[in-house]
Amino acid sequence: MSELLVRLANAATDSYSGGDGVLTAEYLETCRELLPIIDKFGTGFTLIRSDISGNIDRLAAAYGHNNAKYRDLFAIISDEVQRGGQEGKQSETNALLWLKRASDFIVALLHRLHDDQQVSLSAAASDAYYKTLYNNHTWCTSAAFVVVLKLVPSRETFFQALGTPGEQMQQDLQKLLDAYEPLLARIQKFLSEHGLDFATKV
């Protein structure tokens, strides 16, 4: 069993509210549980990890201002939109947008590894990148990212770092995907419906 994958899957499951929202504290914990998995991709992913951590901290700071009011993640963003501050680079909206995009990339990578038990980690990372983050990156950022994707460890080394490879690992991955992908889709739906999926590239 992979304890890291199971913890992440459970955290994602806990993030669902009773309606269409997302529970803030639980979602931020989900993102934190993603970080140890990112560490297993090697030092090339340090910048990605740093970006995710920074965006978690920004949303956590907003949540800390009023835990009761901001129990639902989308309440933080809705308040910021009312203030007209959603388009700033340091906005909570931007933090959620890029946190979601980075998570999309990692989850797509894990999905590729789950579906094809022969694909290398480097190839899976490249496929996931072009399906997710690529469209939001400038040429310079993309060129640098492609280099980083070649620095990942082997598939075998990655899975050994996660736990005991085998059928149970596949089941743990499936549990994670079943919990996390719908959560990301819920966040994307909110961002799209409110015109917050900004096309600005970095």
Question: Nutshell version of this structure?
Answer:
With 202 residues, this protein is mainly α.
Write up what this structure looks like.
By secondary structure, this protein is an all-alpha fold. The protein has one domain (3-191): Glycolipid transfer protein (Glycolipid transfer protein, GLTP). It is built from 9 helices and no strands. The longest helix is centred in the C-terminal third of the chain and has 27 residues, at 167-193. The chain is globular and about 50 Å long. Keywords: Transport.
Q: Sheet bearing the most strands, described? A: none
How many discrete domains? Answer: 1
CATH class descriptor: Mainly Alpha
Query: What's the total helix number?
Result: 9
- Strand percent estimate: under 5%
Please estimate the helix content. Answer: 55-70%
Spatial extent as radius of gyration: 17 Å
- In CATH, what is the homologous superfamily? Glycolipid transfer protein
Overall average residue pLDDT: 94
CATH topology: Glycolipid transfer protein, GLTP
Estimated structural class: mainly alpha
In the predicted model, the low-confidence regions spanning at least 5 consecutive residues are: none
Question: Secondary-structure blueprint of this entry?
Answer:
Layout: H1 3-14, H2 24-39, H3 46-65, H4 73-83, H5 92-115, H6 121-131, H7 139-149, H8 155-162, H9 167-193
Labels describing this entry:
202 residues; mainly alpha; Glycolipid transfer protein, GLTP; 0% strand; G3055 protein
